[in-house]
Fold these 4 entries.
Entry 1:
Amino acid sequence: MAPRYGWYGDDFTGASDTLAVLAQRGQKAILFRGIPTTDQLRRAGDLDAVGIAGASRAMAPGEMTAELLPVAAFFADLGVRLMHYKCCSTFDSAPHVGSIGHAVSVLGGAFPNALSPIVGGQPNIGRFCTFSNLFAAAGTGGEVFRIDRHPTMSVHPVTPMAEADLRRHLAAQGLARVAGLHYPAYAEGADALDARLGTLLADTPDAVLFDVSRVEDLAIVGRLIWQAAEREKVLAVGASSVAQAVCAHWGAEPGPSARLAPSEGPVFLLAGSLSPITRRQREAAVSYVKLQLDAEQLARDPAYAAAQAEAIGVDLKAGRSVLATTAPEGGEGDTTLPPGEVAVATAAFLNAVLAKAPVKRLGIAGGDTSSRAVQALDLWGLAYLGMPSPGVALCRVHSDAPGLDGLELMLKGGQMGSPDLFERLIHGD
């Protein structure tokens, strides 16, 4: 039978988080690096959910079209009932880069349901959507800010969030008529809520944005999405809360989290994030040899990159874990290079290090960094191993390259993870 759930992540960290959500709830799921071959699908076995990890968050609209049209065709042919475009939980995007509205326009043709649901909020990682306005915590358990006043996301170096009302934010990206279904309606009961949604759909909106302000909202939203998907396959947009909502409706509850085992050998951790959260994790990582890389030299000077890779390889071969950072010490970007160029150079550097000293556990921090770096690795799929911190997945690499197959890979967005995350990547829980 066809998998009932498909997802495309606009970056690798987010895609792996959705993999974790589904696997924790008993769904047989795998995340492919790109559109899988028939042989890779066969090797993956029977699946409830199939994911594709991409990098559309960092793409211009034209690039997104070329990326997403084959994705739409693949999932439509696969027969999934629900296609989930997994965006960042903070919805940071813009008309010119990572446009969520453009993604909907490209993917929506293959999933022509009258309901185009957008799920705002993911409470377990401190994301809350009320009356269509998005709020986000500053780090795990941190103070909650309206997204346009968030200390990091309001000044994001690529896609700063200047509007908290997601209807207005998405209108600038081509979704001019987004209707909001607000959380007080969830208390009205199923029949009344169905009628309210029907009234909204009668006005043929471009999409319907669902509030999620608490965990209890998820099953309610999941029922509305899944009953639409049972009638006609549907495209849903949002963070991993889309998977949480549908699984809650299915009655698929998360199982106990597996403890993180100590690493077998040294860890290499590559951090490209400018986030204060990642900076604090780096400061707490006392068990690593720390190396500050010059991003511009890494991109422009092959001799510099080769020398740094050689030095890291020496430490790793000697059994010393290494944390290499491309973000400046002060946390503010001072390079003249475009972020995409830095990410590409970082990915090439990662390959060079692994060629010098293969490791059994690897960590990558930063959404764009993770996406580019994983694309540069010779792997075809990821399977879930555990969740060291909310929103952070540890995965097993599937690869035809013997040195990579079985590698344990942690992918982390800049805003995610506890302060001691990097230390626990070595020592376990």
Entry 2:
Amino acid sequence: MTIPALHFQPWGETLQEQLDAARRAEAAGAAVVWAPELHRSAPVTAAALAARTATIGVGTGIALAFARSPFLTALSALDLDELSGGRLRLGLGTGVQRLNEDWHGVTWSRPVTRLRETVTAIRLVIAGAHTGEPIDFEGSAVRLRVRGYRRPYPPVRPAIPVYLAGVGPAMTALAGEIGDGWISHELCSPSYLASHVLPRLGAKEGFEVVVSACCAIDADPAQARAAAAGVVGFYASVRTYADLFAFHDLADEQQRVIEAFRGGLPADGLAGAVAPAMVDRLTLAGTPDQVAARIAEYGGLAGAIKLSPPTHGLPPSRIRALQQQILRLIEELSR
């Protein structure tokens, strides 16, 4: 069985539990652990993950690119790379307009152009902050003019790999053009990856395609589907993903979820409105053997698959049990 590299996004009701899960993933054979940014700060979590692990790669998956200045993001990346001994993958994404404007007070305009210029500025700082030479960049959305500054610590390496999250065609194409890797959202089937994503990414040497996957493993396939349904319901309630559901012949099923959402169900409570076909086509849900077979379907398409347990609408005890099943499968597949 040919499978992609196995990455893992650890969950924890506390940060300590999240770190313990990352250590277990390292011991099981996972290649990278990723720190998301929503309920916690991705750089802070990544720093803790780097300090508590020894060999596994550590990524921010994903850090918001516009909520921090490119200079601060670059310094954080340099610190994290030093702390991890050169194991960092800097994962960046734009987030959506409402999040940037209402949560972070950041002006939203031309996100593709701004992300391109943000990555350029970050790379300039990473490459030159220790030299004392001026650092200049003048874009249409990002400006950087650094004088009289030298970071008095040598970098671990001259460049840090930058992975970009992208959903739409323009952002996905940008990732393929300027990134060292691409990270998907949690619903990305092999067929969608092959037909809609890979042609836009291109075939740049050394570029890593990382598929994020909602993974629910249970001896009872019906229980696995029920656990994963909440994640599918969350995405289905958002019109942005209409093309994804339509591609999988799930437009009518998505509409029923949207109607349930408009009828008063919360975004975390839509599992009951999700048809089984939606879960089967868009998540890795089933017995250990079924999920292993689904992972193998990404062989030759993705360089890595980032597994994470479903969380939407589930109590901590259930999430914890699902995470343990993922760790067992990683260990089994890594032998």
Entry 3:
Amino acid sequence: MRERIKPMVRLFAPFIIFLAISAQSLGNRLLIPMDESQKNHLKAYGIAYWILKSYEMEMDWLLNYRGGSFMVAYNQQFASEMTVRGVSFEVISDGQAGQILNQISAEDVNMDAVKLQKAPRVAVYSPKSKLPWDDAVTLVLTYAEIPYDVVYDDEVLGGKLPEYDWLHLHHEDFTGQFGKFFQYKDYPWYREQKREAEGVAEKFQYANVPAMKLAVAKKISEFVSGGGYMFAMCNATDTFDIALAAEGVDIVEAMYDGTPADPTANSKLNYGNTFAFQNFKTIPYPYEIEFSDIDNQPDERGLTEPNDFFSLFQFSAKWDPVPSMLTQNHQTIIKGFLGQTTAFKNRFVKPEVVILAENKSAGEARYIHSTHGKGFFTFYGGHDPEDYQHRVGEEPTDLNLHPNSAGYRLILNNILFPAAKKKKMKT
């Protein structure tokens, strides 16, 4: 009997060894491709965030490799979750992963791998009252299943910002002119916004709403200087800098602060206080929805929806990892979209600010980034990357219809950037 068993052992031994080797060499990494093969680019970012947050596991962000793919150690729960969320992935061996990393590390290719280490704590600066327009960042965070807290003037002035790593500025008017929507002054949403802002100004003993909003902008500036990351879209970009430049100068008319604007205000602006812009002039007229000449307005741009596009710059992944991270995409030409602040005239962008994307023919920057103190900021023009001209009162964009939106991907690049182990930016 013993002799009859031995041949069976000999027969199955190689198979058992093969299975053991296979278990060790196959399926050891998960590659989340971010090129055209990805079924849902936006939820892929949510998966990356979920892994960092829930499992505290490092992962690789492969800059310029297949659209900025992600790679992480194999875990069946990760694979199952990606299947549930509709995110494409590939199971690869450690050997294949090593080949990818070797390819990326070659000196003659514009690729690099950065380690994502810790999920950032995310806050969105947004009013508690309901407004008749949506916000692209909260839409995409919700769709990608990335958690965030809502903070507003009360929390900022109350010193809550240091609890977070990443702050998005909702489409806010930091000059205290309520978006210059004075023509809507009798609408319930406008009255509620005004009541809320005046209540905060009174609570913190500011003379008026513009003074309170300036204090909020300065608190946010301190947050960034101390090492925080700020991302702003639409008119939260230019009004933030305008408010900082106009400290001590009355740039608003009497219906907002009880006193007329200083007619010489533009000669008194301090551009040394600003993050991104210089040499601009404010527009004080209360019925004019533009705040300054920073914004490239429709009649100046010479563009319409069919020919409105902007181009992402290509940076050196090895030498300029920060702008490379922020421009990862499966497309380099992005559809344009309007906003109360659509784009930034190039001539007003400070020389130290990195232009990440522009429409050269219109002379405008659409997407810019730089450091401020120990922190970082990114400004992105326009309101909604998948709604060319979003109007007050329109329904929010359904991102189920746009899971591969290149314009929305730029927002999510900014969410993951604080998770990356930093390398010095050379640009």
Entry 4:
Amino acid sequence: MIVLRAADLGDLSLLQSWDEEPHVLESDPNDDWGWETELGRSVDWREQWIAEKDGRPIGFMQIIDPYLEDSHYWGEVSRDVRAIDIWIGNVSDLGKGYGTEMMRLALDRCFLQDHVTSVLIDPLASNVRAHRFYERLGFKFQERRTFGLDDCYVFRLDRADWKRKA
């Protein structure tokens, strides 16, 4: 069973080491997460989680309200949307179903809020494995879009589709 706990400054070295893993760099090559600052900053529009399996950290997730998020990364979005970032930290934990369970936990959190109608995710256009992963969860391709230096596919999961899959 995987549980989520709030990420904090005690996770700094862990997250920095995961950021250097080749599979993480491959999926997120151009972002500087600013862990030293962001882990100590509490904002209403973001949740940052460490996923643990049997008490051992295995991954990171962030759920944001892109309408309120201060960098406006997603551009203009409605108030009823959430966006998720997710990765597995160690390559040895890939392919074990942990990402699926983490996403289900995150999506449950998002859709617990009655006003949330959909969730966005933006894997790199080149990350075909991620595209298939999100499609299996019910996400649908929306558009190809450039975020900073990253060529991404935007996928969307609507509440009705999540309910059908859940």
